[in-house]
């Protein structure tokens, strides 16, 4: 059993804590916001309910997680520290600087950055060799994939130790050969999002149509056969012919009017009641339940 410390108890931090505790590990969570810490137990219980954990087992899992009111209180209780603070480079660097002032040089540190360069995150660290990019997918207690990557100065021993720990939890780990912003998953995901926004800007269709196409075709196929396997399956010659015909028409945009227009009107998405789509009362809960059900259904595939 490894004792994990998590800095940041928000969306990802509390979810990672649940995943670790489910695997039998002890976890200590610190957050600078007292309200976030105060709601930690309640949010973990809701997460475990989403996992369909028997009610009698919920308390056994949450008992493995405790809250620390200060960073200094967390440090002596853990063997590995996970940084799960907001996705801003300056905040992550400040947190790591404060952490390094309190921990020994050999203590592993995992960063849950999802889009930032780990090499940039490590700048300013006194011991950057111990920082590993460990990107959990939301919700961490349901999605099995964890992407693991080194920074430019990471000692690969720490990368291997992270992979071993995650594999021991039953996670599906992928190990990147080198640091790249966005790891693999987010680069693929947002390449698709960019093309979807391009279709909106070109007035090819409306947002709901894009979601229908994804959910009723590609979403069904990609859960079973990935794009590289599919390229081989249909033939690399056909794949090349399709790309030759299509690639010149795909978006390479770095500006996104289809997002800027609703944002300038105060339509931020679910939280504001409207974005690219409308979010009437009850839609939030319906989408969350559909997402959970979809993940479980896909995990049940042979």
UniProtKB/TrEMBL annotation:
Taxon lineage: Bacteria, Bacillati, Actinomycetota, Actinomycetes, Kitasatosporales
Pathway named in the protein's UniProt entry: Lipid metabolism; butanoate metabolism
Protein keywords: Oxidoreductase
Boundaries of every 3-hydroxyacyl-CoA dehydrogenase NAD binding domain copy: 5-179
This protein's name: 3-hydroxyacyl-CoA dehydrogenase family protein
Domain (3-hydroxyacyl-CoA dehydrogenase C-terminal) ranges: 182-279
Signal peptide (UniProt feature, chain positions): none
Family: Belongs to the 3-hydroxyacyl-CoA dehydrogenase family.
PANTHER family: 3-HYDROXYACYL-COA DEHYDROGENASE FAMILY PROTEIN, 3-HYDROXYBUTYRYL-COA DEHYDROGENASE
Pfam entry (one): 3HCDH_N
């Amino acid at each position: 059993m490894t004792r994990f410390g998590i800095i940041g108890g928000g969306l990802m931090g509390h979810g990672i804590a649940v995943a670790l505790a489910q695997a039998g590990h002890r976890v200590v969570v610190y957050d600078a916001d007292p309200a976030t810490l105060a709601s930690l137990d309640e949010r973990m219980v809701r997460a475990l309910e989403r996992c369909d954990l028997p009610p009698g087992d919920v308390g056994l899992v949450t008992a493995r997680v405790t809250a620390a009111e200060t960073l200094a209180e967390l440090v002596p209780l853990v063997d590995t520290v996970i940084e799960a603070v907001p996705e801003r480079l300056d905040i992550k660097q400040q947190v790591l600087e404060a952490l390094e002032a309190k921990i020994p040089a050999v203590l592993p540190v995992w960063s849950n950055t999802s889009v930032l360069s780990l090499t940039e995150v490590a700048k300013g660290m006194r011991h950057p060799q111990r920082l590993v990019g460990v990107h959990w997918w939301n919700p961490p207690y349901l999605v099995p994939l964890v992407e693991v990557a080194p920074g430019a100065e990471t000692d690969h021993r720490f990368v291997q130790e992270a992979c071993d720990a995650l594999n021991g939890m039953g996670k599906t780990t992928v190990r990147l050969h080198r640091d790249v912003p966005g790891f693999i998953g987010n680069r693929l995901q947002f390449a698709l999002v960019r093309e979807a926004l391009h279709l909106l800007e070109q007035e090819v269709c409306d947002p709901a149509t894009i979601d229908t196409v994804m959910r009723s075709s590609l979403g069904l196929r990609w859960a079973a056969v990935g794009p590289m396997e599919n390229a081989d399956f249909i033939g690399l010659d056909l794949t090349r012919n399709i790309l030759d015909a299509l690639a010149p028409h795909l978006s390479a945009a770095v500006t996104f009017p289809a997002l800027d227009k609703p944002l300038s009107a105060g339509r931020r998405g679910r939280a504001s009641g409207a974005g690219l789509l409308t979010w009437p009362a009850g839609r939030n809960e319906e989408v969350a339940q559909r997402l959970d059900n979809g993940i479980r259904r896909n995990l049940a595939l042979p």
